[in-house]
Amino acid sequence: LSLEMDLREVLERDGLLLFYQPIVSVAEERLEGFEALVRWNHPLRGMIPPDRFIPLAEETGLIIDLGKWVISEACRSLKLWQEIYPKAAQLTMNVNVSIRQFATPGLVEHISEVLQLNKLAPACLKIEVTESVIMQDKAHVVGELNRLRALGVQIAIDDFGTGYSSLSYLQNMPIDHLKIDRSFISGFQESQENDQIVRSIISLARSLGLSVIAEGVETRGQLEKLRALQCDKAQGFMFSRPVDEKKAREIIGTSQ
Ligand code: G
Ligand code: G
Ligand code: NA
């Protein structure tokens, strides 16, 4: 309960932090964009990871305000970077959206307003949604994803491979990208099974015309293997941990 009160308080005083993890092209290791990841620096408990407070925010409904803040802040940062660096015009921003945010009216309207306010091209924004979010209320979530795509926003399926995925399920989904869950990348050089899973996700994506992002890439060996499999993009500690806005700006400044 006290954590809930603290979360309410930190939201009210705009005290959460947004970190950004680079996403790069596998072929050229060129910076393509960032994933926005929320952080809570608690005065007594230190950095609280999102796995600890996103579920709480979901249960209490605080996720609605938190989620709006994340979308606004992520778009504001992207706009700032584009103003500083002409080369940032092509960068994209991935934002995670959870089930309760879809279930509450106003998500699409809020995203549309924030894009207009910041004069951002809608294609710069990518919404990450897990398979489980879609499955919990498929008709409604798919409807909202269609509305987002009608704005020009792109959709990525997050943690792909851990859920209910099947060819028929994916075929009619309004999506643009698959993100391979990092559990498949971590053991993927040693494990025959993970290797097969990664290969089949990439070929599945190819056949559906989707791009593929590998999460949790930590070693050059993993990257080389992804390159051989023609995976499109990668994200992970090999390139960078999630960093604050200032550090993200430096990464853009020194990128090719
Ligand atoms: O940053 P870290 O890997 O600790 O994130 C853990 C999980 O928290 C991730 O799976 C991510 O999906 C989730 N998460 C991080 N930031 C956000 C956010 O802004 N909104 C939502 N809904 N989930 C987030
Ligand atoms: O899928 P999700 O949005 O939950 O993933 C983002 C989380 O994964 C973040 O909390 C981030 O810190 C973590 N993460 C990002 N890159 C790596 C990596 O290369 N290895 C590991 N172990 N975790 C990573
Ligand atoms: Na994510």
Fold and architecture overview:
Residues 1-256 form the EAL domain. This is PAS domain S-box-containing protein/diguanylate cyclase (GGDEF) domain-containing protein. Strands 1-2-4-5-6-7-8-9 form an 8-stranded mixed β-barrel, surrounded by 4 helices. The protein has helices at residues 2-12, 50-60, 63-84, 99-103, 107-117, 131-136, 138-151, 167-171, 182-186, 192-208, 220-228, 245-254; strands at residues 17-25, 31-42, 46-48, 92-96, 125-130, 154-160, 177-180, 211-214, 233-234. Helix content is 49%, strand content 20%. The termini are far apart. The protein is an alpha/beta fold. Bound molecules: guanosine-5'-monophosphate (2 copies) and sodium ion. Sodium ion (NA) binds at residues 35, 96, 128, 158.
Concise account of the structure shown:
By secondary structure, the protein is of the alpha/beta class.
Summary tags:
eight-stranded mixed barrel, PAS domain S-box-containing protein/diguanylate cyclase (GGDEF) domain-containing protein, single chain, 12 helices, 20% strand, alpha/beta
The major β-sheet equals:
8 strands, mixed, barrel
What spatial form do the alpha-carbon principal axes imply?
A: globular
- Count of DSSP strands: 9
Give the C-alpha Rg.
Answer: 18 Å
Number of helices: 12
Distance between the termini: 47 Å
Question: Strand order of the main beta sheet, please?
Answer: 1-2-4-5-6-7-8-9
Bound molecules: guanosine-5'-monophosphate, sodium ion
How much helix, percentage-wise, in residues? 40-55%
Beta-strand proportion = 15-25%
Topology as a string of helices (H) and strands (E): HEEEHHEHHEHHEHEHHEHEH
* Overall pLDDT score: 94
SSE class: alpha/beta
Low-pLDDT runs? none
Organism: Desulfopila aestuarii DSM 18488
Protein name: PAS domain S-box-containing protein/diguanylate cyclase (GGDEF) domain-containing protein
Domain EAL: 1-256
